[in-house]
């Protein structure tokens, strides 16, 4: 009899399993994929970051002349780039197997179903357990009229494994996946057009920062068609033909592409577990409804991560998992969802935490704001990474409510502001902390000073 069986070994599930084992629970984790780490490690965050880094190095070569570095005869070995990505993934997934052994988590390989509360079935074996934690993650949302074959019409999985650089890549959806993978292939030589339904990119990100990101990404070769909905993708001869409608108008355009990436969001994976028969409540979009302790409508069955409502982010799933099992072990687990950072790993990076300006306006909350452009930051000037800005939002008495960055290393810079917000820090707290010179982090300090009406370098 286990204390806990976790279904799914993605970042939510494997972290929960390890933490539960650390707390003395007898734990098993079931995974059917054949390798650990879930979408994030196998076909998501990690391989995309490997390719973003590799393609970034290739793209950098064309800018080195400005630094006085002349590179001749550079060429692309896509096979080697992909092999490196696969090795990064392989090493990390093996690392989880090691962590399971070290912490005494039993790995059960196969696809799980839940015949009853307290039972997890894998193959022909029914395992008894006091608690079940569903951490089955998410999968790409399909687009009606468009069939993903992972050869020409791709999801993120296919777009991480192309064996040649497409000439024309059309990306449907200017969200996180579309922009990250769009930029990978643009850097490697593809002509990339991103088609987005809304009249802006990166919904959910502060509008002003999203505009800066769009401008910077356009400068780096991505073409955007906003306010457009893809209605159909058809194969024709050597290329694909997309039927694209202008939202709110009767106009229909046709666009040709040799590859199409569908990146219009992800949906929870909750089918096939037997939840309906068990009476586990799911909402209209398929997310499992849970209470504050992550328990579903059926006692003893818990759920975390992408398959419950909330941002679909690996680190949020990890936080969910730890809080959930700490609760099971009698501790007080807690996640502060208002302070979960999000990072888009494009160049420039886009990073955010807390409220956007639009959300504050909509909620009628009084705020002050400050901004500092990297153009005025001496470190950014010396490295040549001057695109973007740091923006902070705070209550009139200076308590930070949100922070948004478009710029190089934004994903690292945001950590200071996450900590500041977690500790209820004010603009003055951040501005009064000494920031090394010259550093990109000085832009964070200056944005806070700007909100206080006393920026030095702006
Ligand atoms: P997303 O929700 O970020 O963006 C999807 C975009 O597609 C939206 O802008 C939406 O308006 C647009 N769209 C929807 N239907 C459309 C249509 N018919 N035609 C044109 N545009 C359409 O979804 P995405 O990029 O697929 O990412 C899925 C999830 O994975 C997100 O929740 C994201 O947070 C997560 N993720 C996070 C990463 C990170 O943290 N760096 C990296 C990759 C994914």
UniProtKB/TrEMBL annotation:
Misc remark: The active site is a redox-active disulfide bond.
Protein name per its UniProtKB record: Dihydrolipoyl dehydrogenase
Organism listed in the record: Aliiroseovarius halocynthiae
Active site as annotated: 437
One MF annotation (Gene Ontology) recorded for this entry: flavin adenine dinucleotide binding
Domain FAD/NAD(P)-binding: 2-321
Gene Ontology annotations of biological process type: 2-oxoglutarate metabolic process
Keyword S-adenosyl-L-methionine: no
Cofactor: FAD
EC numbers: 1.8.1.4
Annotated binding of FAD, by residue: 49, 136-138, 306, 312-315
Pfam family of the protein (one): Pyr_redox_dim
Keyword entries, A-Z: Disulfide bond, FAD, Flavoprotein, NAD, Nucleotide-binding, Oxidoreductase, Redox-active center
A cellular component annotation (GO) from this entry: oxoglutarate dehydrogenase complex
Residues involved in NAD(+) binding: 173-180, 196, 265
């Amino acid at each position: 009899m286990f204390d806990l069986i976790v279904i799914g070994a993605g970042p939510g599930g494997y972290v929960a399993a390890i933490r539960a084992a650390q707390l003395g629970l007898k734990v098993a984790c079931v995974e059917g994929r054949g390798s650990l780490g879930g979408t994030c490690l196998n076909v998501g965050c990690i391989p995309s970051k490997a390719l973003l880094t590799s393609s970034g190095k290739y793209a950098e070569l064309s800018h080195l002349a400005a630094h006085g570095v002349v590179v001749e005869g550079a060429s692309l070995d896509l096979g080697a780039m992909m092999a490196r990505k696969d090795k990064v993934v392989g090493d990390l997934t093996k690392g989880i197997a090691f962590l399971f052994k070290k912490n005494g988590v039993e790995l059960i390989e196969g696809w799980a179903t839940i015949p009853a509360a307290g039972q997890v079935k894998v193959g022909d074996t029914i395992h008894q357990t006091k608690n079940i934690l569903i951490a089955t993650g998410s999968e790409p949302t399909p687009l009606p009229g468009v069939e993903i074959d992972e050869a020409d019409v791709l999801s993120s999985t296919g777009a991480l494994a192309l064996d040649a650089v497409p000439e024309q890549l059309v990306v449907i959806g200017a969200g996180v996946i579309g922009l990250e993978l769009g930029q990978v292939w643009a850097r490697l030589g593809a002509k990339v057009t991103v088609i987005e339904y809304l009249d802006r990119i990166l919904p959910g990100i502060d509008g002003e920062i999203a505009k800066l990101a769009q401008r910077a990404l356009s400068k780096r070769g991505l073409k955007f068609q906003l306010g457009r909905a893809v209605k159909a993708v058809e194969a024709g001869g050597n290329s694909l033909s997309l039927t694209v409608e202008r939202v709110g108008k009767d106009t229909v355009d046709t666009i040709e592409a040799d590859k199409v990436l569908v990146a219009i969001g992800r949906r929870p994976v909750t089918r096939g577990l037997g939840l309906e028969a068990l009476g586990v409540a799911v909402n209209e979009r398929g997310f499992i409804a849970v209470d504050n302790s992550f328990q579903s409508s059926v006692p003893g069955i818990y759920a975390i991560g992408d398959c419950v409502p909330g941002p679909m982010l690996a680190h949020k799933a990890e936080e969910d998992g730890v809080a959930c099992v700490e609760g099971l072990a009698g501790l007080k687990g807690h996640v502060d969802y208002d302070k979960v950072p999000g990072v888009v790993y494009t160049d420039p990076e886009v990073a955010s935490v807390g409220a956007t300006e639009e959300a504050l306006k909509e909620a009628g909350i009084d705020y002050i704001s400050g901004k500092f452009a990297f153009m005025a930051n001496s470190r950014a000037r010396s490295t040549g990474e001057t695109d973007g800005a740091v923006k902070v939002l705070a209550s009139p008495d200076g308590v930070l409510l949100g922070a948004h960055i478009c710029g190089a290393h934004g994903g690292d810079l945001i950590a200071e502001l996450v900590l500041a917000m977690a500790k209820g820090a004010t603009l003055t707290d951040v501005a009064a902390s000494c920031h090394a010179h010259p550093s990109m982090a000085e832009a964070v300090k200056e944005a806070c000073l700007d909100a206080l009406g006393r920026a030095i370098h702006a």
